[in-house]
Structures are given as structure tokens and as C-alpha cells.
Amino acid sequence: MELINGKTYWPTTFQPTRIYPVLEENLTCDCLIVGGGMAGALSAKLLTDRGIQTILIDKREIGHGSSMANTGLLQYTNDKTLTSCIQTFGEQTGVRFYELCRDAMQQLAEIAQKLEIDPWFVPRTSLYCASDEDDVVMLEEEYRNLKHYGFDVELWNEDKIRSVFPFSKRAALYTSGDAEVNPYRLVHSLIDSASNQGAKVFAHTAMTHCDYNEDGVVCYTPQGTIRAKHVIFSTGYETQEIKNDRGAYLKSTYAIATKPLKDLSSWYEQCMIWETARPYLYMRTTPDGRIIAGGLDEERPREDQRSIKAAHKGDILLQQIAEYFPLSELEVDYAWEAVFGSTHDGLPLIGPHPDYPHSYFVEGYGGNGTVYSMIGARLITELIATGTKNPDLDLFSLTRTSKPSPV
């Protein structure tokens, strides 16, 4: 599966990267991680922090899957609102999901502070704007629910928004505790740290197939094998090529990075901005003065149309930025299209699967993929290290039904 089409910005911010070898021998370990993106990198870091003997393989270069297309907005809020989560899953489950996302944000901040390679992790606020009049009531209800359950949020009216931004919306939720990150640098920093702690990392090493035995898994690659007590599949959207999740679906999304801008002083707090429309526009800034924007999700185009779509959608995204920030120097520098996965019920897929013994999956489907990867890496590392399953894993079961729990 070709995950990305177009020219992405992040690899230009970190060169040269560490070179990892191809596996050319037979090895054993406690835990094998298949996939060197965000979920695999976080898992490798947490496992090695616990002293668990770990091997990580990736069929590409490290960080050259979906993480290279990630736009690096980290939030505890989700595409599916807390109100909607409560209506779908019931109060206890809906609130717990949001609590886990908030906790994951704090854990990401703690990890980022200790990494030797700066991942450009910067605490930010977020502004969730009502796209039209009909969404104001929805935002007001969401505000009441977030406040009731202890989340840090403010409800801004039109005058407040206009007082600090060059645009206005009828209403918006202003949240704290969010962050921006350079996902490419974060992945490399995490795997570099894990490698320095003893993890063995191999690039350009594809898993051809696995044998599932009573005492573990044997993973076969073109030039070697790995015997592991446990396997974590962190293969992102390509997991659908290993097993088909009926609750998941794949689409295309689009993003751009502008050329550096001289003056972003009109952008209050460099606050991350997104909106209630679906598909929605979202925007953030970068340390070198660029604007990154994304959205316009749609059904996946034909392969021969992907590059044309990336350029066309990039122009539309630039126009949408200008509606918020009418800056004369706005110009697209990087534009890309990428495969994007979601689930029908809005929750990621994390945990074991009955058809794959000794194996765990971290499928961070949705707009909060890095946050979900943090949740998955923590829960699965805890299970491998202690042998005890955290009840929170049940929220993300790969075999869950889509039927809502009673409210």
C-alpha cells in the first residue's frame, strides 16, 4: 500500500537520520514490534524502559510510513465529541475514553521532555470553531459536559474570538493541555532512545509471514527469522492487509505546509485551530514560521489521480487558510495526500485478537492517532510486563460490536 503521495515537509527538518541495518540473521527476543511508525516507536520506548528485550522491524526506512504525513496536532479532544461518546457508549465508557486521552497527552509531554533528539514538542491551546449557526448549540452542550467531568475548557463567544483573532465565529471551545509536535523527529527520537537502551532495530526488513506456536511467535523475513514471546503489530493502516477489521475504513486526506511567513503575530498564542464541519479544516504553525493545514477527507482516488488531487486540494487548503488569516505572502511549499483510517464507532483498535496468539495490535485510527498510540503502547506494555490486563483495554477491543452501551 502506498500510504503517501506528494511532497511532505517533515523529513526536511531532520537530516541525516540514523541508519539501521537490514536483518540478516536469526534472533530471539521477549517482544517483537512490527512497524517503525508512531505506535511502534512509543512501544519500543516503553518496553525498553521496562527492561524488556525488544526487536523492531520496518519494511521501509524508519518513520517513512504514515508518520511522515502526520500533521502533528495533539489534543485530548477527539473527532467524536465527549457528548457523542456518552450517547454511544454510555457515561462511564465515554468519559473514561476522554480521560485516557487527557492522560496520554500528559504522558507524551513527560516522554518528550526526556528525549535527546528534540521532537519539537510545544504545549498549545486549541480553538474548536463552530462552522455554522447550527453547530453553536452542539458546542454549548459539549462545553457543559466537558466542564461537568473536569476537563479544562472555555466557551468563547463571537466577541471574544474577534478580540484576539483576525476572524470570528459564532462560538468556539478553547481548550488547554494540547500540544504540537514534529512527528518525524518524535518517531526517530523515540527509536533512537530505545536503540541506545538495547533494542535491536532493523529497517528495510519486511515480515513475510508468522507462525503462531504455543510458546510464542516465529516471524519470517527475507533474510532471517525472529522468535518472540510476544508480537506487537504497529503497522498502521496497512494492518488491513494482515487482517480485515470490519469496524475500520480507509479514506484519503490532504495537507499542506506553507512557505515560512515573516509575521504570524495575528495568530493568538499560535493556538491550534479546527472546526465542527465534517470533513473539517485544521491548522497549526511550526517553529520556522510555516502554517500546516489539513482536511478535505474523501474516498480514496484512483492511483493515477492522487498527485493531481494533492495539488488541487492543496490550493483549496491555502484558500481556506486565507479566510482565517488573510496574509499576502501565503504560498504552498509542500502538499501531500495520504491514506487515513477511521473506525465506525470513533474509537481506535488496541489489544489482542483471538486469531493471532501472543500478538497485540495498536491501530490508532482517527484524527488523534498519536494520542491513541500512546494509550495503546502503555496498555500493551503493561500487559506484557506484568501479565495483567488493564480493564481499559476492553474499550478498544478488536472484536467489539458496534452496538452502543445503555446510557
CATH level-two architecture of the largest domain: 3-Layer(bba) Sandwich
Count of DSSP H/I helices:
8
Sketch the major β-sheet: 10 strands, mixed
User: Got a strand count?
Assistant: 18
**Topology-level CATH name of the largest domain:** FAD/NAD(P)-binding domain
> How much of the sequence is in beta strands?
25-35%
Mean of all residue-level pLDDT scores: 95
Helix content: 25-40%
| CATH class placement of the largest domain | Alpha Beta
How many separate structural domains? 2
- Class computed from helices, strands and strand pairing: alpha+beta
Write the CATH homologous superfamily of the largest domain.
FAD/NAD(P)-binding domain
The oligomeric status of these chains comes to: single chain
Task: State the order of secondary-structure elements, H for helix, E for strand.
Answer: EEHEEHHEHEHEHEEEEEEEEHEEEH
Please compute the radius of gyration using only Cα atoms.
21 Å
Q: Which descriptor suits the 3D outline?
A: globular
Poorly predicted regions: 403-407
Cα separation of the termini: 40 Å
What's this entry about, in short?
One of its GO terms (cellular component) is cytoplasm. The chain is 29% helix and 29% strand. It has 407 residues and is α+β, with helices and mostly antiparallel strands.
